[in-house]
């Protein structure tokens, strides 16, 4: 057995040793036109005594096509503030919601509208409700019947995964079994929503609400045709919750439970769907995004960590912290998931998250992410063209 530190013996394919009859011929450069040996001498090796050292190699990250171009505008924009959800008083005229956004002008119209304003305020209010709260912390008030029904809904959808195993396929993304799972979602949506509306003080006032709520729910878990999922689908789930709040089924004391129980369960289900059916990222920003699929858990997770005594944004680089606390804080769980599925240096595959880790405190991270959510999700036509408008989220001409 050879010594690991010794020079390996030449093989039949290796070049003859220096000084052999063929040495000069084998190392003489060849003409690219005729193939004959040229007279150009072989460059001499670098000498540390007479020459300058060769330049150090530094890998350069190629510019990403989807790199954000409006960073300055995001920084200077106001931080979205929590707002109350305007109640929808009966009698209701529920309708099938439809897409309305097709241009930047439509985006501007949405954000200038009452519900554009209050929808973002709802997201900010959910974030504010979990400042300093761990996922395992006791809730400030017992879960309402509507919260329990929402958790039952997500549990039922999780059960569909167990009964719908992935099918054999050769593609990296898009297991066709997801279409079967989504079909089960569609078949059970009205019944599952009916259990939530049945918890209202006057259930008869919400008769027929499924016709408007079901499309939001169906769009919350990805697209069955494309077998993909992205921040637009996640935003539809937030819109589904906003509609429930408009109907009085979710009230402000429920907000911590909405984030720490319902949204946490939704995120767990989505991770399961992504892993099981290899959902393709919808509209991913590549390396210049927080995550290929999600945005809201970073906002909520940063809010959880505000004023934490020990953990700072730079703590995401500590493997022990990620391992021990990712089950308590959504932000750490998201970073841990990114590090699990992406290979290579973190600063190269996730430069946005790496840059955020340099922010001094979590409050600034949280406020920056709220501004970024508005700019990079709610103001992007390719994402918001799928957003739905009905009687609960009205489109104002």
UniProtKB/TrEMBL annotation:
Q: Where is the composition biased (Low complexity)?
A: 1-20, 35-50
* UniProt entry tagged with the keyword Isomerase: yes
Its GO biological process annotations read: mitotic spindle organization
User: What Gene Ontology cellular-component terms does the record carry?
Assistant: cytoplasm; nucleus; protein phosphatase type 2A complex
Q: Which locations, inside or outside the cell, does it occupy?
A: Cytoplasm
Q: Kindly report the protein's main subcellular placement as a broad class.
A: cytoplasm
List, in alphabetical order, the Gene Ontology terms for molecular function in this entry.
Answer: peptidyl-prolyl cis-trans isomerase activity; protein tyrosine phosphatase activator activity
Documented EC number(s): 5.2.1.8
Q: Which InterPro entries has this protein been placed in?
A: Phstyr_phstse_ac, PTPA_C_lid, PTPA_sf
Ligase as UniProt keyword: no
Reaction catalysed by this enzyme: [protein]-peptidylproline (omega=180) = [protein]-peptidylproline (omega=0)
Q: Which key words are in the record? A: Cytoplasm, Isomerase, Rotamase
Return the annotated region ranges for Disordered: 1-62
User: Cross-referenced Pfam families, in alphabetical order?
Assistant: PTPA (PF03095)
* Its biological purpose: PPIases accelerate the folding of proteins. It catalyzes the cis-trans isomerization of proline imidic peptide bonds in oligopeptides.
Give the family, as the similarity comment puts it.
Answer: Belongs to the PTPA-type PPIase family.
Please give the name of this protein: Serine/threonine-protein phosphatase 2A activator
